[in-house]
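pasting for the record
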Amino acid sequence: MKEQFLDKKEKPKNGWENETAERNEAVTKFLKNYFAQNIEERPHYDSVELQFSGIGPNVFPKIQEGEVPAQEIKVLYEKGKIVQLHAIFVLKDNEHYDTTDVYFTGKALQDFLNQE
């Protein structure tokens, strides 16, 4: 896992940080690789470790194929340690917006950070 080294004057991060630019490619790759695996061979996470919310029928298959980047990625820090990642995927089809939120915690978050 990548570690962050702080300047002696810098305080550890706390709270939500927008890290869309820094993490978008890695999130897209992680999810594409996850869904590319046979269901029996995939890592098994409990329902809150890798949670999909508001699964949009048009955007979700594109997430599985790695064809749509996240519109926003926020990372929750507690005393400088990442404890949650929230990615929001949006696909606009004519006047309709199709969205899916993905939350990483626990083992799924650690696997993602180790892959980064």
